[in-house]
């Protein structure tokens, strides 16, 4: 039985069961639900938004920061703010992280950045703590960096206030059900409480959840069909982590999945690293297509770009996360 079906995920979480889902067979050739997908596309080094229900061509929204510290875009999340409306949180393995004003005219270059920093050490994730406007970043070199503002409505006032050693730091997600900040890296995911505000913001009282010895965590994401869990990918599987009990349930038993997301319809999609021949390089961490699954967990269709793509992550474009 496949645990990506909404009712089965809920049952597994409640019962604490942990069977591995075997994703076999083929489902529908196109999405039965329509939702938007945001991708980190490294061939053109862009954040792009596409619809699930049609072939991908010209994106509905694009952010192109150039190269240098913005090379190899590695993470994107969209969040609502009182001062700017919707913003995009972005990270790049080249060393930079930032907040993009999504509504700003001119999404080419870095002119739409509301704030940026250069934590270095291969940034892989970024998250915002709502109501206090703090930003947390994860660098795979082994660090979480916390940035606190002096004015919640002014991201330009953000400054580094805390650095935490965290081996293999790759993924971050804010759990607004329990008001906890989750991070994932080598062998574990950790849930942090947040204390203080403004420049006194700190991550405290970390609770560790094992993802298995030898597993490097890649991503964290919400299940938009079940607010009691987080979806995580690591070296050998995709798993669901119960936010309250911390029970870990296997959703899919294949590895090398760089990101995994699930829509409210129960449909899901991932980027699984297979490598790419674009550039004639050896980028073994990307895939030229995004694989979609129907609500029953069967592979249904893929999306790619006719002009070439190297996808690293794909997420549901939504600010209504949980």
Sequence-ordered SSE layout with sheet pairings:
Blueprint: H1 6-15, E1 36-41, E2 46-51, E3 61-63, E4 73-81, E5 85-92, E6 97-101, E7 113-117, E8 123-129, E9 134-139, E10 143-148, E11 159-165, E12 171-175, E13 180-184, E14 188-195, E15 202-210, E16 217-222, E17 229-234, E18 238-242, E19 248-252, E20 257-262, E21 268-272, E22 289-293, E23 299-304, E24 311-316
Antiparallel strand pairs: 1-2, 1-24, 2-3, 4-5, 5-6, 6-7, 8-9, 9-10, 10-11, 12-13, 13-14, 14-15, 16-17, 17-18, 18-19, 20-21, 21-22, 22-23
List keywords for this structure.
globular; single chain; disordered N terminus; mainly beta; TAT_signal; four-stranded antiparallel beta sheet; 322 residues; Methylamine Dehydrogenase, Chain H
How would you describe the overall organization of this protein?
- This protein is mainly beta and about 325 residues long.
- The chain has one domain (about 5-315): YVTN repeat-like/Quinoprotein amine dehydrogenase (Methylamine Dehydrogenase, Chain H, 7 Propeller), CATH 2.130.10.10.
- The protein is built from one helix and 24 strands.
- The protein has one helix at about 5-15; strands at about 35-40, 45-50, 60-65, 75-80, 85-90, 95-100, 115, 125-130, 135-140, 145-150, 160-165, 170-175, 180-185, 190-195, 200-210, 215-220, 230-235, 240, 250, 255-260, 270, 290-295, 300-305, 310-315.
- Strands 3-2-1-24 form a four-stranded antiparallel sheet, with no helix packed on it.
- Strand 17 (about 230-235) and strand 18 (about 240) form a beta hairpin.
């Amino acid at each position: 039985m496949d645990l990506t079906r909404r009712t089965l995920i809920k049952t597994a979480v409640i019962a604490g069961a942990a069977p591995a889902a075997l994703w076999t067979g083929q489902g529908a050739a196109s999405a039965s639900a329509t939702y938007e997908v945001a991708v980190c596309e490294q061939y053109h080094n862009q954040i792009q938004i596409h619809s699930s229900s049609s072939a991908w061509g010209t994106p509905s929204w694009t952010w192109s920061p150039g190269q240098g510290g913005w090379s190899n875009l590695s993470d994107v999340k969209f969040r609502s703010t009182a001062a700017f409306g919707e913003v995009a949180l972005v990270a790049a393995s080249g060393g930079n992280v930032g907040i993009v004003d999504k509504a700003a005219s001119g999404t080419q270059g870095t002119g739409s950045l509301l704030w940026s920093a250069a934590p270095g050490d291969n940034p892989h994730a970024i998250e915002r703590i709502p109501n206090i406007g703090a930003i947390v970043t994860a660098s795979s070199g082994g660090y979480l960096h916390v940035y606190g503002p002096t004015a919640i409505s002014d991201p330009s006032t953000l400054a580094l206030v805390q650095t935490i050693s965290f081996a293999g730091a790759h993924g971050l997600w804010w759990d607004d059900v329990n008001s906890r900040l989750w991070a994932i890296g080598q062998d574990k995911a950790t849930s942090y409480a947040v204390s203080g505000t403004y420049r006194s913001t700190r991550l405290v009282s970390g609770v560790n959840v094992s993802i298995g010895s030898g597993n490097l965590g890649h991503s964290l994401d919400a299940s938009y069909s079940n607010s009691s869990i987080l979806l995580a990918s690591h070296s050998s599987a995709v798993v669901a982590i119960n936010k309250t009990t911390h029970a870990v349930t296997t959703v899919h038993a294949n590895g090398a999945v760089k990101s995994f997301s699930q829509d409210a319809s129960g449909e899901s999609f991932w980027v699984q690293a297979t490598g790419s021949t674009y550039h004639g390089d050896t980028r073994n961490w990307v895939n030229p297509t995004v694989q979609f699954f129907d609500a029953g967990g069967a592979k249904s269709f893929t999306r790619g770009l006719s002009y070439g793509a190297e996808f690293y992550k794909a997420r549901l474009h939504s600010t209504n996360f949980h």
